[in-house]
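I am sending you the entry underneath: sequence plus fold tokens. Let me know what the token row says about the fold:
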Amino acid sequence: MRLQKYMAHCGVASRRKCEEMIKQGRVTVNGQVVTQLGVKVDPQKDEVRVDGKAISLEQKQVYILLYKPRGYVTTVKDTHERPTVVSLVGNQPARVYPVGRLDFDTEGVLLLTNDGELANKLMHPRYGVEKEYYAVVDGRPSKSQIQAFIDGIDIGDAIAHAHKVRLLWQKGNSSAFKVVLKEGRNRQIRRMFEAIGCPVKFLRRERLGNLVLGDLKPGQWRYLDEGEVMQLKKLTEAET
């Protein structure tokens, strides 16, 4: 098994993050520092350590659904000393990481876990896991502008698409939408609305796959039950 895949299975982080850790010289195999990708390990024979701490497949996997409030960053540590989402869930039996990102001013559904393999699949667009948002914007977009969300909008570094978009209401110079994405570019919804001249005033992610906020309030969290975890994994079984 490739080292980064083994690390992800052990719950260290997503596979991409594990690759970064290897390149940074933070991983040893049988006492030797490994910095090259592609190294293979035998989980039954080899000792793998990350930052000096041994890892194994027996580590407990943790799945947390958090209602991320505005004013928090979705990182483990922040160089600007802003509050992080990890600080909201307290001490856990394993080190957990946020899956994907919600920007500083966005609230809503956020999964934290040490299941790196699942995290990697949830973030990869080829699995097409849906993310549903509620957005309130300045302006009253036309039908053609709304259709452009499906057809594709140039956001500078890519042509971004929404999977579904629905107008909910319009009051004065404000409009509200439900937007469903299957891709996940950085600040995608904000950038798409900005591109049509309707900046976002409020944004909340209301669903990630089968996970919804339910009765949670901003800053509250709960563990996923076994059925929720199984359903979430099922969503990543087949590529779209």
Observations:
- The mean pLDDT is 92.
- The chain has three domains: 3-54, 63-125+210-235, 130-208.
- The first helix runs from residue 3 to 9.
